[in-house]
Amino acid sequence: MHAAMIEIFIPPLTKFSDGVVYTRMPKVEQQLAELVALPFDEIIERCAIKNRGDPNFILPECLIHLIRSTRLDNRESRFNRLYPFLIERAAKALPRAERMQGEKKFIDGAMSDLNEQVFHRFLALVTLDRTGGDKLDFYEVHFDEAIAKLRNKARARIRIRSAREMPIELDPESGELPVAVELGAGSLDPPDDSIIFDPVFRPRLLAAIEELPKEQKEIIVMTMANIQSESNDPSIPSISILLGCHPRTVRNRRKCAIATLIEKLGLGEET
Amino acid sequence: MTGTKPSADVILDGFLAAYRQDRAALGTYCLKYPEKTSELVELAYELALQETLAGDAPLDKAAEGWITAELGASGPVGDPFATLNQTGFAKLRETMGVPTPVLNAFRNRLVAGGTVPLAFLERLADELGTELRSLANHLAGPPRLGKAASFKADGAPGAPATKLSFAELLDEVGVPADTRIRLLDEDN
Fold first, then answer.
1. B1: CB partners within 8 A, 6+ apart
2. For residue range A186-236, what is the model confidence (pLDDT) as tens digits?
3. Would you list the DSSP string of A107-133?
4. How far is residue A6's CA from residue A34's CA, in Å, rounded to a whole number?
5. Minimal CA–CA distance to A220: which of B16, B30, B41, B12?
6. Could you tell me the sign of the dihedral formed by the alpha carbons of A183, A188, A189, A194, in that order?
7. φ, ψ for residue A165 (rounded to 5)?
8. Cβ within 8 Å, pair B114-A98
9. What is the rounded CA–CA span in Å between residue B103 and residue B125?
10. Which of B52, B71, B106 to probe the A interface (max A CBs under 10 A)?
């Protein structure tokens, strides 16, 4: 029984930010302390729990710690038993590329390709981490966010490759969209930005936001984060200040973006 | 460590942790790091996507396939340096801006891959015409003895038992201070 006990020393993380070492969330530390007392077989049983709402669900931050704690093992047996659960957690942190719309299943090929790149990059990081270093430290702090960061980097690499495919050219002087484009998108109508906050539209909305020109996407994402459009106080974050453009430009771009989103969501006729 | 400029990675980690607590972090981080605004916005979008489409929902068929393939993978790990001739090695050394012993340490798996900045590993993998994963797999193998080392040894030659960290390797090789800083920079 004693031999089957997992010997986990919970060392602090080693990566620094501003002179302060990265720290795990209290609930992660708490669960790790609890796991220390369990036999390894029981940990494996708990790893199989997939529902995040289950009180015995092992947090992915803890699972990554468990995997990392096998770095000094002489054999791979503990690593090999934990690994399948870890890579499933990584896959689960990726947005699904398959969606049901009514009876039909849609597959977002671009998203699936991106996910595949991220998945394999994560595997590479796990392999690298077996020899030491702090590359997975942040995964013990916020696992899902770390995966989101991987997706973001992969997306940036793709964007660099396709930088020439700028769908809409902005006026080099004003930084605004050509009038014809704004009119075509119905920007003269008052925008109804409630769709941005409506969870019913969220999955399709996010896909539509991704297709917006960068300048419009930035404004919509900032709006989703409740950043105000303009402010007279430069110390208060406003979209106008953060993007370095005139408040009128912010308004125009938002109008145009919302009109495009409404159209893409098939709500044009109803408004 | 205090007072040094945080790497891009550290800034993004800080943002992700703060944004989890309060969406207002997007504004404050953009204000504090204006050069990172686009990246921070993209990350906020990515988190919205994850919040909406990830989690407990069943995995895609494709993702199930990647997992199955990964768990079923077996066989020897390829050596990304295997086809590199003398000319190719010299060119690689020049492109990477490192002395020969550093590249030899990578070829002979004497360096702990986890201690090497990702940017360096990615460039090396690109130059070798391979994927990061393949390079990582190669580096994960046990240290091996270089071809030239065998005849120099007094006794029976053997590969070192432990690997060096990248910083230790650079110190041992004696690279100039400015090169060392450049090579250890996570953002380069």
1. A16, A18, A19
2. 444 445 678 888 877 888 899 899 999 999 999 999 999 999 999 989 889
3. E-HHHHHHHHHHHHHHHHHHHHHTT--
4. 12
5. B41
6. positive
7. -90, 60
8. no
9. 12
10. B52
Query: Which residues fall within 8 angstroms of residue A81, CB to CB, at 6 or more apart?
Result: A40, A44
CB contact under 8 A, A144 and B50: yes
Please name the residues in contact with B148: beta carbons below 8 A apart, sequence gap of 6 or more: none
ipTM, two decimals:
0.89
Residues from chain A contacting residue B26 (CB–CB below 8 Å): 221-222, 225, 227, 237
Task: Find the radius of gyration of the CA atoms of chain A.
Answer: 23
Tokens 């190719």 found at: B88
- Cβ–Cβ < 8 Å for B55, A57: no
SS3 category, A22: coil
Distance from chain centroid for Cα B148: 27
Which residue, B63, B138, B59, is CA-closest to A117? B63
Phi, psi of A264, rounded to the nearest 5 degrees: -65, -30
Question: Nearest 5°: CA angle at A131, between A125 and A133?
Answer: 70
Main-chain phi, psi angles of A9, to 5 degrees: -95, 130
B154 CA to chain A: closest CA distance, Å?
A: 29
| pLDDT 10s digits, A104-145 | 888 888 899 999 999 999 999 999 999 989 999 999 999 999
Helix (H) or strand (E) holding A150: helix A143-161
User: What is the distance between the alpha carbons of residues A267 and A54, in angstroms, rounded to a whole number?
Assistant: 38
User: Helix A109-129 vs helix A143-161: angle between axes, to the nearest 10 degrees?
Assistant: 120
Of the candidates B90, B112, B127, B104, which has an alpha carbon nearest to the alpha carbon of residue B167?
B112
Beta pairing partners, A98 = A107
Q: What angle do CA A24, A29, A30 make, to 5 degrees?
A: 145
**Spatial contact of A130 and B115, defined as CB atoms under 8 Å apart:** no
